[in-house]
Amino acid sequence: MHKRLSLLSSFTLLLLTLPGLALAATETLATVTLENGAKVRLNDDFTWEYVIFETAPTDADKAVEADKPTATAIAAGTSTTISVANKASTPATTASSQSMSASAIAQAELLKSTAKAGVKVSFANAQWDDDGRLGLTFDLSSTSSEHYVLIEMDVTLYDDSGRKLKTETIKVWKAIFRSAETYLRKGEHRQSRTFWIEGVDVNQWSKQLLSLKIGEMDSRM
Asked: Is 150 helix (H, G, I), strand (E, B) or coil?
């Protein structure tokens, strides 16, 4: 993983030196296909994320793809293809046209963890109650010097075919007011409470497909 992140950082620095890539903040610079087949999106704020969805290309998409510049980076005797994004020419994607790519389904375990600002959150386990609700529990760990009292996270669920079902925003960690022992601190490993989600068919979620993304974080010194 450290080797992969170093490689991605190198690609980002390479792309920033290319002409014509003066983009606004948090725009996509490129999409990278790793050796294991997973696709990663590089952003101009030096962050990266896995590419989950695939959509059926339109005629306009095909025209853009034909004119899109590409660069091939060679590292450790292997090739990794980088496709430079042309955001201005890319139409917005609707949820109804999205489905998880075959590559994302094959690499589903990669999507069950996320990290931000020194905090890592991972899917721990799932259960079902007598009312048919899905219960999700998560593991948290921190390498940050901050003492976190609130961490929000988006949990997106997909059925066994990769179709998006729903996104729930949860407070995966919430400390007790003025109770320092409940803060998430450096070096600590905690488990969240169980979050109960309605509207998921147990017969369509045997593969346990989901993706995680940390949002708002609040800390105390």
From this structure: strand
Residue type (1 letter), 5: L
**Tens digit of pLDDT for each residue in 58-67?**
455 555 455 5
In the numeric block, the tokens 């925003």 are attached to 169
String of DSSP letters for 24-80: -TT-EEEEEE-TTS-EEEEETTS-EEE--EE-PPPHHHHHHHHH--EEEEEETTEEE
Give the C-alpha distances (Å, rounded to integers) separating 209 from 6, 142, 166, 169, 170: 28, 25, 12, 16, 17
- Which among 31, 26, 30, 34 has a CA at the least distance from the CA of 7? 34
pLDDT tens figures, 84-105: 444 444 444 444 446 888 888 9
* pTM, rounded to two decimals: 0.66
Residue whose structure tokens are 């309605």 = 198
> Do β-strands 78-84 and 70-75 pair in parallel, antiparallel, or remain unpaired?
antiparallel
Asked whether the beta carbons of 29 and 21 are under 8 A apart, the reply is yes
